[in-house]
Amino acid sequence: MFILLAIIVLAALYVVFIYNGLVRARQVAEEAWSGIDVQLKRRADLIPNLVETVKGYAGHENKTLVEVTQARAAAQAVPAGDVAGRAAAEGILSQALGRLMVVSEAYPDLKANTGFVELQQSLETTENEIQMSRRYYNGAARDLNVKVETFPNNLIAGPFGFVKKAYFEITNEADRAVPAVKF
């Protein structure tokens, strides 16, 4: 009787140990997503100032300015928690911002504008922060996914509602391509 009771207690403790590990992994992944979200919001807040600055110098580049504005609105409209949708929308926004930077190259006065240079540097810093946050999130998502899928954790994860997290990945193959350098 004592041995049976000891086995039941050990099994219960093991289930609690696995459950707590899954909760910890899920919380780390959610905290990591929050870090990405903060950086994406920071980038979104920089964009209107950048667009207005470029508009002052290159007003006739309306198509590019509209694309950036629309891409920003689309990225912000993605529901919270939709990692794949947000990654796709942010990829489109990144492409539009890239085109905006190309437009700015054609205007020496704009490139010399202190406000534009500061905005450009802030955007570059933010892009680096997004990249680091994305790596952290993907690592946290990987750790959670491994815990959710491996045996015996999967026996506990399923009944308690633990699911895999999507990775924040580049969905546009053009973003993965190595840029061509021509002289």
Automatic annotation (TrEMBL):
Topological category with respect to the lipid bilayer: Single-pass membrane protein
Superkingdom of origin organism: Bacteria
Name the record gives this protein: LemA protein
Family: Belongs to the LemA family.
GO terms under cellular component: membrane
Keyword Transmembrane helix carried by entry: yes
Keywords for the protein's UniProt record, in alphabetical order: Membrane, Transmembrane, Transmembrane helix
Subcellular localization, as worded in the UniProt entry: Membrane
Lineage: Bacteria, Pseudomonadati, Pseudomonadota, Alphaproteobacteria, Hyphomicrobiales
Gene3D superfamilies referenced in this protein's UniProt entry, alphabetically: LemA-like domain (1.20.1440.20)
KW Lipoprotein (keyword) present: no
InterPro entries: LemA-like_dom_sf, MamQ_LemA
